[in-house]
């Protein structure tokens, strides 16, 4: 984003919340991954929002690939879930993975724990990975 002079010789800029959070080092990436998971297996990761902060989740992505070379031409089906103790936020899935952007960020208040899951729904062993990203304010 270009900086704009404020008329006093200083430089001023306007950032949206996501850019500002990244600039300030408040970006959050929650990652769940597992290697060689059987059909129905999963990986999960939880994150508790620190006191005095609010977490805004803006997007999630996942990748799944066959563990054994002989299975790599088969479908690689995954499903994912994002939830807190209060709300189930999102289900997404795909063949090989997915990316989803949340037009309105998921808002998770202080002291709440958000958990992400990625499941292997293929009929063979797979490596599974998921991230959920956002920022703290």
Report on the architecture of this protein.
The protein is mainly beta and 137 residues long. 5% of the residues lie in helices and 59% in strands. The chain contains 1 helix and 10 strands, in the order E-E-H-E-E-E-E-E-E-E-E. The strands form 3 sheets. The chain has a 4-stranded antiparallel sheet. The chain has a 4-stranded antiparallel sheet with strand order 4-9-6-7, with no helix packed on it. Strands 1-2 form a two-stranded antiparallel sheet. A hairpin with a 3-residue loop joins strand 6 (77-84) and strand 7 (88-95). The radius of gyration is 19 Å and the shape is elongated. The chain starts with a strand and ends with a strand. 20% of the residues are buried.
Q: Which labels suit this protein?
A:
137 residues; four-stranded antiparallel beta sheet; 10 strands
Beta-strand content estimate: over 45%
Biggest sheet architecture: 4 strands, antiparallel
Q: What is the succession of H and E elements? A: EEHEEEEEEEE
Runs in which pLDDT lies below 50 for 5 or more consecutive residues are: none
Number of helices: 1
User: Strand arrangement, largest sheet?
Assistant: 3-10-5-8
- Computed structural class: mainly beta
Q: Tell me how many strands there are.
A: 10
Which term fits the overall shape? Answer: elongated
Between the first and last Cα atoms, what is the distance in angstroms?
21 Å
Specify Rg, calculated over alpha carbons.
19 Å
Average pLDDT rating: 88
Percent range of helical residues: under 10%
